[in-house]
Amino acid sequence: DVKVTQSSRYLVKRTGEKVFLECVQDMDHENMFWYRQDPGLGLRLIYFSYDVKMKEKGDIPEGYSVSREKKERFSLILESASTNQTSMYLCASSRGEGTGNTIYFGEGSWLTVV
Amino acid sequence: GQQVMQIPQYQHVQEGEDFTTYCNSSTTLSNIQWYKQRPGGHPVFLIQLVKSGEVKKQKRLTFQFGEAKKNSSLHITATQTTDVGTYFCAVNTGNQFYFGTGTSLTVIP
User: Fold this and answer.
1) Following DSSP, what letter does each residue of chain B receive, concatenated?
2) Which of A50, A78, B11, B39 is least surrounded by CB atoms within 10 angstroms?
């Protein structure tokens, strides 16, 4: 089974802190994604990466950056956390070739910024 | 990018009642996927449809892909409390996934 592991399940950070959310997948997937989920707003794509060192902005990249130094690892960085970034963050991965691929999600990281 | 509209946003049903959520697109879809997210959990893949008019069943869940491949539905017969959660439709086009906004299902015992 595909496993997507997010290193932190629950975090509480102070406004202005730098926050790292780490994600690792074990299926040699080309694509990795970071989503944010808020009540009533569905899944919103922050960034995705289709290869090592490659990244593409999603729908809401402002205030975030990402890093993909190794194929299996995709990190989300909040350079200076703000209260409006309090949310649930989901990492995901998928194969890159063709269509009809399945996306696999991690268990989510609940971030509270105070 | 491709847009997939999903309705309703919320649905409350009595246990035993049926439930349906719908996804619609203005463009022809190469595939449609359905995911379920339990409360406090993460979305998990349920099924994929790729053929025009395709119908697939998983126990009490019936998934349909429209003849024109522009819409899809998920129907649950005789809901149970274990069906509670948010159901998302999605389309995969190579590197991209386009998700509907989800339907949150509450089942009242």
Assistant:
1) ----EEE-SEEEEETT--EEEEEE-SS--S-EEEEEE-TTS--EEEEEE-STT-EEEETTEEEEE-TTSSEEEEEESS--GGG-EEEEEEEEETTEEEE---EEEEEE-
2) B39
Return the residue of A nearest to B46 by Cα: A102
pLDDT tens digits for range B25-64: 999 999 999 999 999 999 999 999 999 999 999 999 999 9
Query: If we measure between CA atoms, which residue out of B34, B5, B18, B3 comes closest to residue B105?
Result: B18
Task: Please say whether the beta carbons of A17 and A112 come within 8 A.
Answer: no
Q: What are the chain B neighbours of A108 within 8 Å (beta carbons)?
A: 41-42
Query: What percentage of chain B carries pLDDT values higher than 90?
Result: 93
